[in-house]
Design brief:
The chain is α+β, with helices and mostly antiparallel strands. It has 9 helices and 14 strands.
Length: 465
């Protein structure tokens, strides 16, 4: 889920028509796959909004976030714009709503003052839109020679991903919300039986690999096109940095030592008065955290969560290491040296299952480091998909041959050094978003997102075969 930030929501403009590589032929059950992805997203949307009263749905729980009722109606508005009007060629249901739910027109901090639909009206609206969407789905032509929005079912995948990204945004709003817990989920699985014996780091051999994709029909424009990248040999943490490891940085005065911070990071650390990850506080000798309305001791074996890029970079410097580049991350996650190709996921091309990764909000926390041995990458690294978004060292830039599709505001307007790339997807990311090529991005100061990291180091000559 690039990060589920509203400004990247679709706009009701005519889509561009770049010369895209023809997607692989869709499976015969593509309509069922699209319907299931849309239904799964809607169940989650309604669960995240149905557990709160109207007063909490219309409140702004943080200036960083929209009122939950805005996200709810915005999801319906984008579905109407793209699936009902553009893909279906049907008349507008509620054209007067377009300006209200245009994310570029209204910053999040300003949205509570808008004449938004109330909770009941928003639910009725998204329900009406969905009925139209399913009619469009039943008769849509997914052939590659027709509308590029429909080829391979792209627009249905795009809107399923869009809704899931807003669901993750709403989950982050739940985390920022004050008050008693309203969400619940079982604990994630324990670490694998061999977790204690896992090496600190795994080698990733140097050489070329295929980054990105030109064949995944639901991949978004910034993941395209596939291109060859030559990566030097390096070492990568086997698992994400844990709370225990990060506490060593805190205890060693890492937040007070300017040596470990970039100049921009040090200024931000001082201005924001950062002393620990967001939602942490100290009680005597014990570190506690707030998690969806519950106060609990910080679990030492879980990946650290809610740290910004500057914090991740400072930890890596303190540890004598660095953040991996985006290309290094993707090579570690996807490249299979035995077969000489890039996989769709770390474990292969098969869809994610609960045995592979912590995804889909099945749990409300990361799994312990070393969990999900079935999801390991060929290099041996674990938990590359799921659990926490992972900051990388890379700025968000286009791939060679990039073409905006279906509109510039999805990716192109965000390219540049202001945004850092995250990879992998957190526990609140759905499988429709989580894949080895998916690119998330955010400002380096962001901490409310479900982000952690792992570190890397260069390999000495001859150290990695």
């Amino acid at each position: 889920m690039k990060s589920p930030k509203s400004p990247k929501s679709p706009k009701p403009s005519q889509p561009s028509r770049p010369d895209r590589v023809t997607p692989t032929p869709p499976p015969v059950d593509l309509r069922e796959i699209a319907a299931a992805a849309l239904a799964r997203a809607r169940r989650r949307t309604l669960a995240l909004t149905g557990c709160l009263g109207d007063d909490e749905l219309t409140a702004q729980h943080s200036p960083l976030m929209s009122p939950l009722v805005w996200d709810l109606a915005h999801i319906g508005n984008q579905e109407e714009l793209w699936l009902v009007r553009r893909a279906g060629g049907r008349p507008a249901l509620r054209p007067e709503l377009d300006p209200l739910y245009d994310a570029f027109r209204h910053p999040r901090a300003d949205r509570p003052a808008l004449p938004l639909l109330g909770p009941d009206a928003a639910r009725e609206y998204v329900g009406d839109v969905r009925k139209q969407t399913l009619d469009v789905l039943a008769s849509a032509d997914f052939g590659a020679d027709g509308d590029p929005l429909l080829a391979g079912g792209f627009v249905f995948g795009m809107l399923a991903q869009h809704e899931q990204q807003h669901d993750e945004t709403m989950l982050a709003t739940h985390q920022l919300r004050a008050g008693p817990a309203v969400l619940d989920a079982p604990a994630p699985p324990a670490a694998g039986p061999d977790a204690a014996q896992l090496p600190r780091e795994v080698p990733v051999p140097g050489g070329p690999f295929e980054m990105g994709t030109s064949t995944d029909p639901w991949a978004l424009d910034n993941e395209r096109p596939a291109h060859v990248v030559d990566v030097s040999a390096f070492w990568l943490d086997t698992v994400p940095v844990t709370n225990a490891a990060y506490l060593d940085f805190v205890a060693d005065g890492g937040y007070a030592d300017e040596r470990w911070w970039t100049p921009e990071g040090w200024r931000h650390r001082q201005q924001a008065e950062l002393t620990a990850p967001l939602f942490w506080r100290r009680d005597g000798d014990t570190w506690l955290r707030r998690r969806f309305g519950r106060i609990e001791p910080v679990p030492l074996d879980e990946p650290v969560l809610h740290v910004c890029w500057y914090e991740a970079d400072a930890y890596a410097r303190w540890a004598g290491r660095r953040l991996p580049t985006e290309a290094e991350w993707e090579k570690a996650a996807r490249h299979d040296p035995t077969e000489g190709r890039s996989r769709r996921h770390p474990w292969g091309d098969a869809d994610a299952t609960p045995e592979h990764a912590n995804l889909g909000q099945r749990h409300l926390r990361p799994a312990p480091a070393g969990a999900y041995p079935a999801g390991a990458a060929p290099c041996g690294a674990r938990q590359l998909l799921g659990d926490v978004w992972e900051w990388t060292a890379s700025d968000f830039t286009p791939y060679p041959g990039f073409a905006a599709f279906p509109y510039r505001e999805y990716s192109e307007v965000f390219f540049g050094p202001e945004y850092k790339v995250l990879r992998g997807g957190a526990f609140g990311v759905d499988e429709v978003v989580a894949r080895g090529t998916f690119r998330n991005w955010d400002l380096p100061i962001r901490r409310q997102i479900f982000a952690g990291f792992r570190t890397a180091r260069d390999a000495a000559p001859g150290e990695v075969g």
